[in-house]
Amino acid sequence: MSKFAGEYNFKVTTASPHHCQSRGMVEKAVGIVKDMFKKCTYEGKDINLYLLNYRNSPVAGLPWSPSQLLFSRNLRSKLPVPSNHLLPAVVDPSRVSTEMSRHQNDQASWYNKTSTKKSTEFQVGDQVLVRNIKTKVWERGEVIERLGFRSYKIRFVNGNILRRNAVYMRQFKCESPVNDVNDYVLSEDEASHIDDHIDDDEELQEELPLPSDQEDEGSPSSGPTSRFGRPLRQPDRWTYN
């Protein structure tokens, strides 16, 4: 990949593993192509016809199609259109850049309204807890390099060096450095103090406060209870004397 990038003079930017949110544009493009192949297989049509229609369709958030941006005109397809719609018309690049920036700012504004969780920044040498994607267990490690925006290289106790995103990491304050392989996996008491909220695959769960007059589960209840043993609170009703 590095040799190919050097020959064509472009920069390769990688993303954190198991964090598809950081490469949403690529994931969306792959999904569009997969849907094209599925529809072609189901309908028995040529893939080039689907590509032609896709290149003539306006890009999301912009009034121009990919063919207009690249060739400065629409491509002729099976859809009947007036001949003047196929004439060349150069699109101003500055206008395209302005529209794309406005559309991206709008998306960021709507996302920030519902995203209340603030990301934590880590420094080299910090002791952290990293969530294992497969086992869902929090494991201890050390930050050895910062790779980019919310992306870090972690060295675990067993010697593995992996790249992880900050959404899977939590700060861990320990009195002494970790030097035992048995400390690689957290105990239940240590893991209970860690916020296990992950943005891309879990929902925030909040505990509702109990009513002030509700008795504890361990104490006996003289009132009516549910089939699970929880005391039932009778609703207040307006009645006439």
Could you name the key traits of this structure?
single chain, alpha+beta, SH3 type barrels
Which geometry do the CA atoms define? extended
State which percent range the strand residues make up.
5-15%
Widest sheet, order of strands: 4-3-2-1-5
The average pLDDT is 78
Uncertain regions spanning at least 5 consecutive residues:
178-184, 195-218
The first-level CATH class of the domain at 126-171 is given as Mainly Beta
How much helix, percentage-wise, in residues?
25-40%
What is the element layout, followed by pairings?
Blueprint: H1 2-8, H2 24-43, H3 47-55, H4 66-71, H5 93-114, E1 127-131, E2 138-148, E3 151-156, E4 161-165, E5 169-171, H6 188-191
Antiparallel strand pairs: 1-2, 1-5, 2-3, 3-4
GO molecular function: nucleic acid binding
InterPro entries: Retrovirus_Pol_polyprotein, RNaseH-like_sf, RNaseH_sf
Biased composition (Acidic residues): 197-206
Structure description:
This protein is an alpha+beta fold. The chain is 28% helix and 12% strand. It has a domain at 126-171: SH3 type barrels (Roll), CATH 2.30.30. It has six helices and five strands; from the N terminus they run αααααβββββα. A five-stranded antiparallel β-sheet has the order 4-3-2-1-5, with no helix packed on it. A hairpin with a 4-residue loop joins strand 3 (151-156) and strand 4 (161-165). The protein is extended. Residues 197-206 have a biased composition (Acidic residues).
